[in-house]
Design brief:
This protein has helices at about 10-20, 50-55, 70, 75-90, 90-110, 150-155, 175-185, and strands at about 5, 25-30, 115-120, 140-145, 165-170, 190-195, 200, 205-210, 225-230, 240. It is α/β, with parallel strands linked by helices. It has a domain at about 5-170. Helix 4 packs across helix 5.
Length: about 240
């Protein structure tokens, strides 16, 4: 099976932050929603807005043309992501075994360098990895993700997920105000994508910037985390991106 995890240091901006924080970080990218096989989603809570604006096609993974499986296959980086996603969908147990192996290597590599190992497993997906990976058996790794799954977010807020796993709720055009109120009230954070600039407050809540780094487990609790639209998200008209 091909290598599943990418080293976060391949991004020049991230590389500087890794040195600053003293992290050895990896990220795991899959092909979002149903784009891998046209049938099975790895983003069960996705919305039209987030599907159109997904970071899967931003930065070095930009594409020309429509968000279709056949078009994505024209690009090497997306063929690799499609291949990984299909491997997961076809044999989740074997995939989890390989992923755990690579996470063990991350832990060993980081500790040998006196660094803190960090892993984001849902770079472009929303899979409940706590069901497949024994995160508590990798206690030195700080896992973190964004999710649109209110059930998972609620379990995390109730301390029912692994202690070394951090979740930030990802706002979309269908997120009710009551959900935002509930998450912030319980000490969680909600990531919101803004069109051009990050406001000081949104819906009465204080907003902190989330653009300087992606390590959300370092954020103070109970805040809106402001992000700026990138790539296709700049043209969003669904309400996913806030003006």
């Amino acid at each position: 099976m091909r290598k599943l995890l990418s080293n976060a240091s391949t991004n020049p901006k991230t590389a500087k932050l890794l040195k600053q924080f003293g992290y050895e970080a990896v990220i795991h990218h899959m092909t979002p929603d149903k784009l891998a096989n046209g049938k099975t989603t790895v983003c069960p809570w996705s919305t039209p807005g987030c599907r159109d604006s997904c970071l899967n096609t931003s930065g070095r993974s930009q594409i020309t043309g429509g968000l279709t499986t056949n078009n994505l296959k024209m690009y090497m980086i997306h063929r690799a992501r499609i291949g990984k996603t299909l491997s997961f969908l076809n044999d989740r147990k074997a995939y989890a075994y390989q992923l755990t192996h690579e996470l063990n290597l991350l832990q060993e590599r980081a500790l040998a360098k006196y660094k803190r190992p960090v892993a984001r497993l849902n770079g472009t997906s929303d899979v409940p990895w706590e069901k497949y990976i024994d995160m508590e058996a990798l206690p030195n790794i700080q896992f973190y993700d964004y999710t649109k799954d209110m059930g998972r977010m609620s379990r995390w807020l109730a301390f029912k997920l692994p202690d070394n796993y951090h979740l930030t709720f990802s706002y979309s055009e269908v997120t009710p105000t009551s959900a935002v109120d509930s998450i912030l009230g319980e000490g969680g954070n909600v990531a919101v994508v803004f069109r051009k600039e990050i406001p000081f407050r949104w819906r009465g809540y204080e907003v902190i910037s989330g653009i300087n780094h992606d390590f959300r487990f370092n954020d103070p609790k109970g805040y809106i985390v402001g992000l700026i639209a990138k790539g296709r998200a700049k043209k969003d008209k669904t309400g996913f991106v806030i003006d």
